[in-house]
Amino acid sequence: MFKRVLFLTFLFFSILALAIDPVKIFMVPKFTGAPYFVATEKGARVAVNELKSLGLVVDFFYTGPSVANTEEQIRIISSLIEQKPDALIVSPNDAEALSSILKKARQNGIKVVTYDADVADPEARDVFVNQATFMSVGETLVELVAEGVGPEARIAIISADPNARNQNAWIDAMKKYIQEKYPKMKILTIKYGYDRPAESLQAAQDIINAYYPNIDAIVAPTSVALPMAAEAVLKAGLKGKIFVTGLATPNDVRRYVKEGVIKKFALWSPKDLGYLALYVANALARNMVFEIDGERFVAGGKLGLYKIQKEVEGSKNVIVLGPPLIFDINNIDQFDF
């Protein structure tokens, strides 16, 4: 109750005290076509409309590569810097490669928020809005396999890119959790689909050809690769023989859940992630981050009050949306994103 009163009081006086000039914010996803990132855009636009109703106008633009392409993402961000926005919200394709251009944005007085994935150098952004801790995602994926197959499962992983920081961190968390809780569980191989459907499908087919019948599960912690892994298993006639799970939006894998290829999978609400990232970017741009007893907080609209944590899993200045959600045949139709 105290936090809610504090939030409302802060919001009221901030609106009165701050110049209510519009701020310009660009959201740059890894690539624009994925339903996952379309959902983050929708969430951001909901936040824009809420802020407008409070007199805080945001000129919001959503732009990025049409497919996963690090060089194109850097080129787009470079052109956006020249437009002198107040803030950028970016999901980096490559944790290392994006650091330099985002540092340049900060040097030009632009507030930088990373979301969905972070950069390698935390000095390249102001805040990382993380959908869930890396460890919680890794543990969730391992537990789904253990539940679906057993504690001695043999796993193949299809990730996005060798330099995708969030996928690498989730896989590292999986390895650590397996070692601690399921020492007889094994990760046989890690393949990469580069967040492209054709390459992801090929990676899944290569895994099946190389390892079946000595493989029990394919884990795809990317919304592009998970439906492609399910498709490969379906085409190979191995439904029920290879357990498929990972991270994806319900809309991406609904067909495969209903056909029984995917029993359970995980994610968070990408709409809420985009919503929160927009609120954070707006707060930074307007200097609406406030401090209590040495801790910094940001108002996240309907999601509530969020602390900017000084350090989470080795990264500084992080906001965590919340724990992963589990989807299955019983609840998937309750979600439309």
Q: What is the strand and helix layout of this fold?
A:
Elements: H1 2-17, E1 23-28, H2 35-53, E2 58-62, H3 70-82, E3 87-90, H4 99-107, E4 111-115, E5 127-130, H5 134-148, E6 154-159, H6 165-181, E7 186-192, H7 197-211, E8 217-220, H8 225-235, E9 243-246, H9 250-258, E10 264-267, H10 270-285, E11 290-292, E12 295-299, E13 305-312, E14 315-320, E15 325-328
Parallel strand pairs: 1-2, 1-3, 3-4, 4-5, 5-14, 6-7, 6-8, 8-9
Antiparallel strand pairs: 10-15, 11-12, 12-13, 13-14
DSSP strand tally = 15
| Gyration radius, rounded | 20 Å
In quaternary terms, these chains amount to single chain
Spell the H/E element sequence: HEHEHEHEEHEHEHEHEHEHEEEEE
Keywords: Lipoprotein, Periplasm, Signal
InterPro entries: Bact_Solute-Bind_Prot2, LsrB, Peripla_BP_I, SBP_2_dom
Subunit structure: The complex is composed of two ATP-binding proteins (LsrA), two transmembrane proteins (LsrC and LsrD) and a solute-binding protein (LsrB).
GO cellular component, one term: ATP-binding cassette (ABC) transporter complex
